[in-house]
Amino acid sequence: MSIDFEHSSAAERREVETRFFQGTVIKRDAYFPPLWRMLSHLGVQLPSPLLAGFWPNMLALAIPMFVFELLLFTIVACIGFLPNTGQSTLFHSFVSSFLIASMVSFSTARRFNSLSRKHDISNKWRDFVGNYGAKN
Asked: 31, 48 in Cβ contact below 8 A?
């Protein structure tokens, strides 16, 4: 018997994940980082980055980062801190936001992926969920 994650609430899933990671040497900021906490408060429920794959982590990091940087660079350009070159300023804001977000999210997703492999999280998670479901 295992946990039915399809029909469980987000709070129940987060509680099971927290209980699992408390039994490991991994710190809370690694299995439930600040961006995940912020997205959780906004209503976006994501699995722990150590349980998700590379591409879900990459997208979960890149999209909010891209939007934030695009807004930041556009505001900075409109205020006048950047030289006014017309429409190319917005294009440069878009391109630089995309490049920065993709590089940072790639390296961070890669870090989560290597940390998950280093601690063999997927096999331990499978065993934990099977045992946890058998107890309840």
From this structure: yes
Q: Is the pTM of this model over 0.90?
A: no
In this structure, how many other beta carbons lie within 10 angstroms of the beta carbon of residue 81?
Answer: 9
Whose CA is closest to 18, among 28, 9, 3?
28
Domain boundaries, the chain: 29-119
6-23 confidence digits (pLDDT tens):
556 767 777 888 888 887
What is the rounded distance in angstroms from the CA atom of residue 38 to the CA atom of residue 96? 24
Q: Which amino acid is at 15?
A: E
Q: Work out the number of other CB atoms within 10 angstroms of the CB of residue 4.
A: 9
